Amino acid sequence: MRRALIVANWKMYGRREFVADYVRDLSGGLSGSIPADLVICPPAVYLGDLTRHLPAAIEAGAQDCSPDRDDGAYTGEISASMFADMGCRWVIVGHSERRHRLHEDNSLVAAKFAAVLAAGVRPILCLGETAEERASGHAESVVLNQLESVLDTIEIGGLARAVIAYEPVWAIGSGTSATPADAQAMHELLRHAVERRSPRMAKEVRIIYGGSVKPQNAVGFFRLSDVDGALVGGASLNAGMFLEIVYAVGTSRV
Ligand code: 13P
Fold first, then answer.
1. Among 67, 157, 220, 252, whose Cα sits 20 to 30 Å from the Cα of 79?
2. Is 95 an annotated catalytic residue?
3. Whole-angstrom Cα distance, residue 124 to residue 231?
4. pLDDT > 90: what percent of the chain?
């Protein structure tokens, strides 16, 4: 069985004091064996504070990076190799808040994905359809297109270091998650798309779900055969709730 992965995406929340309190609460709440790999993605400016105190069992990630691999005159940008230098092991790319608010398209997301791999860091590729795309019957084609545009630009072996996150846009921050059946169907579709290129990679790649994951609904997702964890926004801002989601893995994937 693929080991579960639970990722906290803090988005643009937190202050230095919050980081210190959070890490203390998280460390204090960990007990026994941890049933999943854990990643915390704070706002970039707080990565130093986070990594200084983070227990060894938990890794740090960034929420985005530049598509440019080499240093250059790119004001405001941070490269994947700079994140690596800060102790980051992961970078989220293609989050829907960037695709939609900042108009990041599939080719930019693919360039970021490749830049993350080139820096020796691990990309978390977010995919997901809007409510309109789902209502008009295009959810599958939109999400497959988002995946294929990345797979077309990398060696398929690169996927061994990546994670795919299915996050339906309408489920993010809305309190309404996808149903477990809809999530399973989409994850299965994505895995089949990978299988067409590499049966081995399809077995190995972790596909995690995001969109209003809470302690109350986490078990329903973790029981699904093609859901390998969660990308958590709002509920990850509370260390206690995040830990409840983490330990839900232990009761559902047996
Ligand atoms: P919520 O868990 O707040 O719905 O956010 C999900 C998300 O966008 C994580 O990247």
1. 157
2. yes
3. 9
4. 96
* Count of residues in the chain: 254
In whole angstroms, what is the distance from residue 219 CA to residue 247 CA?
A: 9
Instruction: Decide if pLDDT at 253 tops 80.
Output: no
Model confidence pLDDT, tens digit, residues 59-86: 999 999 999 999 999 999 999 999 999 9
- Residue 153 predicted with pLDDT over 80: yes
Which residues have C-beta within 8 Å of that of residue 34, sequence separation ≥ 6?
57, 246
173 lines ligand 1 (CB under 6 A): yes
Q: What residue type is 33 in one-letter code?
A: S
Banded pLDDT at 252 (limits 50, 70, 90): confident
Total domain count for the chain?
1
Residue 16 sits in which domain range? 4-252
Segments in 69-130 forming alpha helices (H): 80-85, 96-101, 106-118
The CB of 167 under 6 Å from ligand 1? The reply is: yes
Judge if the beta carbon of residue 231 lies within 6 A of ligand 1. Answer: yes
Quote the tokens at residue 33.
């064996």
Instruction: Give the tens place of pLDDT for each residue, 160-180.
Output: 999 999 999 999 999 999 999
Give the distance from CA 246 to its chain's centroid.
14
Cβ-contact 111, 163 below 8 angstroms:
no
Regarding pTM above 0.90, the answer is yes
* Cα-to-centroid distance, 42 and ligand 1 (Å): 13
CATH number, domain of 221, equals: 3.20.20.70
Per-residue pLDDT at 254? 59
